[in-house]
Write a structure and sequence with these properties.
alpha+beta; 2 domains; three-stranded antiparallel β-sheet; elongated
Length: about 180
């Protein structure tokens, strides 16, 4: 198999492919950066961004389509094949750490990508909080709600509660309005 990889960058690319395989879900660029650079020091920030884009160019990672929400990256067949042939170049101890981290944090990252909450200040001093439920591989949000709050603290609190309450909120709205 012919690759365009520079040998000293090969392990970084394999680490990123390994993380994506072990997470088992499509990941946004922000999630990839958070996993590999902020929560762990498996890759440097700039190295991670560069490697991600090189893997996309090499067609080892893809984003299915342009969406209104943040793109999610996933492994291609070629990416999985490359990883299966060269994963031994990642030290065993690091593979074990990555595997454990991914198992323990998969649900958190899935929710953080699917249940999005943001707030912004309005000209009258109030805050608008936007809640979204994004579906992977679907261009539009499954649900989007905007509410107004009087204080920044209440907007922040609402954003914090959204991840845990989003599934029940969606279910209640769906049953109330559509059943």
């Amino acid at each position: 198999m012919e690759t365009d990889f520079v040998s000293d960058n090969m392990v970084n690319k394999l680490i990123l492919l390994f993380v994506m395989e072990k997470m088992e879900i499509p990941l946004t660029e922000n999630s990839i950066l958070d996993i590999c650079t902020s929560r762990n020091t498996w890759l440097g920030y700039m190295d991670c961004k560069e490697v991600l884009h090189q893997l996309v160019e090499a067609k080892f990672i893809y984003t299915p389509s342009e969406t209104k929400t943040e793109n999610r990256y996933n492994l291609t067949y070629e990416g999985r094949n490359c990883l299966s042939m060269f994963f031994q170049r990642i030290p065993l101890s690091l593979r074990e750490v990555i595997t454990t981290f991914c198992k323990q944090n998969r649900t958190y990252f899935k929710r953080s990508q699917e249940y999005v909450a943001e707030y912004s200040k309005n000209s009258d001093g109030s805050y608008t909080v936007s809640f979204r439920i994004n579906e992977p591989l679907v261009p539009d949000a499954l649900l989007e709600i905007k509410i107004k709050t009087s204080t920044r603290a209440s907007a922040i609190e609402a954003c914090k509660k959204w991840r845990d309450s989003a599934p029940n909120t969606y279910e209640t709205l769906f049953e109330t309005l559509l059943d």
